[in-house]
Amino acid sequence: MKVPFTPWPAELAAEYRKQGYWLDLPLSDILERQVQAKRDAIAVICESRQVSYSQLDIWSDRLANYLQLRGLQSGDRALVQLPNRVEFYVCFFALLKIGVVPVNALFNHGRMDLFAYANQVQPKLLIVSSRHSLFKTREFCDQLCQAVPSISEIVVEGDSPFGVGLNTILSCSASYDAPSIYRPKPTAADEVAFFQLSGGSTGTPKLIPRTHNDYYYSIRQSVAVCQWNSSTRYLCALPAAHNFPLSSPGALGAFYAGGCVVLAPDPSPASCFKLIAAHQVNWAALVPPAVILWLEFAPQHQEALRSLQYLQVGGARLSEHVAKRVEPELGVHLQQVFGMAEGLVNYTRLSDPLALRLRAQGRPMSPADEIRVVDEAGLAVPPGQTGALLTRGPYTVRGYFAAPNHNALAFDDEGFYHTGDLVTVLEDGSLLVSGRIKDQINRGGEKIAAQEIENELMAHPQVRLAALLSVADEVMGEKSCAVLVCHAPVPKTIELRKYLRSRGVADFKIPDRFMFVDALPLTAVGKVDKKRLQSQLTLSASADR
Ligand code: J2J
């Protein structure tokens, strides 16, 4: 069975093939070609394990074989939640090989996110880690299986009292190295390979169907723009499943180039600096709050950072004053990256003058990326003026998964994706990200859909109205503030936090601040006037300073 998605128009698809953007190859080709070219080279370093391309291939074959024997087939879906460990790539390639289409949840996602993903894709397979607090016991897993009866197979990374151990499968060469049974069968290259996650701005998190063709192009073009090759040693410190460290050029880019991925459990200096020194890392990718931490710790660790040549920063706006410190204090070359899981990725180029790399968030990586910047009436604004960014192209999707109503708003008749970002285009085509119209909080690169949290807050019996807004923060860039109108007695903030946790809201989505007011400003049609509320909040915050 094929996973439904909104295809590109046939004439554009033909053009993308003609131009060589789409190669009609599955994403598993990324691994296969390195197994041919350099099977013994190290693909991934994960704690004390140095895993070669051929080992990654053997492990992913074993898992693929096991899953096929268990009856999983092309077009089936999987829900995967794994930490930054080599097993993430083993599972990714195994599922690609047999055409099982995964949603790769981020490791800090909570119960609510996992339920939402499982409900949408109806997975047959669950791959989770007992290192996650939700999967230390079988309780949550049982709840999930009860609520989503499509789940019939559970594989667990780490020690676990339930499911089948991933390590048992990977180490069982006698049972699962049997090519006579196992037949790799990826989905067709112009079909869905896996789902990316949208930062979201609506009540339920949206899934982004990415095809082999479009994602493979995004990876190859990223590798070309960043000039990666087999000497690239990439530190993956952001959550491995996120689009940035997966594909911009990320781990898949490093594999495509024949380089090496060094996995860090998190982006803190304590975790990363020693790995950089031990494994001679030369590229890393961070979100701005991590850059600030690195700057703080760098003076005492100059020696550890010696091998690092390039630092990518993206996911949220890097302030120019922090950007200015990066090159002199970390001794690296700065590259800004403005991307999105829906597609479009912008890079500052390695050869761009410093002044541009400090100021701009990059320009589209492909000559086939189409960009429109429009005013509120949808009319094009001239270069130098701010407007809403719309885009389409060979690796920008045409619709979210099973979300016709939202798609009608987020994609226009010409197939342009309305990114929700406000940008200014400079003369050379570089973009400055200057704001946002989507109802989202960008908490240091982690995206929070305001509506999702407002709905949860309004489910509390004492809360009458809720609005989640963004407040400026020096380190995180933005934090979240819930503004509430409550029935008496007004609940304590500690109770509200506990309540949200009890409903399965992930920690990073719990409001950093709460404010209690008598009323919220309303629009003419009676909706909360967030624009007005946001400007009131910004004004009162600047008055406090
Ligand atoms: C300002 N805002 C930015 C930047 C993303 C590479 C890099 C990042 C992402 C990503 C990605 C920004 N300055 N440099 O997928 O491949 C905000 C914008 C954008 C949203 C997308 C990649 N870089 N943003 O962050 O899907 O608002 O992807 O629309 O998580 O992050 O978020 P996400």
From TrEMBL:
Domain AMP-binding enzyme C-terminal residues, every copy: 452-527
Domain AMP-dependent synthetase/ligase: 31-401
Keyword Ligase: yes
Provenance organism: Pseudoalteromonas fenneropenaei
Entry keyword set: Ligase
Protein name (database record): (2,3-dihydroxybenzoyl)adenylate synthase
Domain of life: Bacteria
UniProt cross-references to Pfam families, sorted A to Z: AMP-binding, AMP-binding_C
Pathway the protein takes part in: Siderophore biosynthesis
SUPFAM superfamilies, alphabetized: Acetyl-CoA synthetase-like
